[in-house]
Give the backbone structure.
Amino acid sequence: KQEVTQIPAALSVPEGENLVLNCSFTDSAIYNLQWFRQDPGKGLTSLLLIQSSQREQTSGRLNASLDKSSGRSTLYIAASQPGDSATYLCAVTTLGGAGGTSYGKLTFGQGTILTVHP
Amino acid sequence: ETGVTQSPTHLIKTRGQQVTLRCSSQSGHNTVSWYQQALGQGPQFIFQYYREEENGRGNFPPRFSGLQFPNYSSELNVNALELDDSALYLCASSPGGYGNQPQHFGDGTRLSIL
């Protein structure tokens, strides 16, 4: 059974700091890994998706790395801003199903609550 | 391009009642997945529909059921509601049921059980 763990559970930093969020997963047989952002009471916004054959992805101030063999990913946020305050969720896609059917499902960590104060 | 939309946004029910939540998938997406997110937790996979058939299910009891329509929109039905069913229910759509395509999420339906 795939399990995803995120560390730390919460993080509070001053504006301008560079920070790292960590994600680990127990089963390396993944198709991809996604990092999501969730604002309070809202749905999920996909930030970065790394396919299993890739090592990293970058978007603006965000950089995510993937080490599939060790079951780890990190999300690096450069020059943090108050607008970055949110919950960050890591999720891996694994293949499920049997008997001729297959489907991809996401398994999520519990998230890291990030607060960036001015 | 219209994204994933869910309705209603909020719902209050009492124990034992039944509820139906709705989801319109993003244009061009034929796969819809439903997730339950309890307060302070990550989302948990309920089930997935691909071309109107359920093709995968998580660890949820049979009172959680669903439908997908020819236009790929979907419903989540929950019977005999329990207090623990209080959660944010998220719908996600993707192009294709195999799983290596990114899933795009709606804003969810907040269900409260009294």
In short: The longest strand of chain A covers residues 86-96. Chain A touches chain B at residues 4, 31-32, 34, 36, 41-46, 49, 51, 89, 91, 93-97, 101-111 (CB under 8 Å).
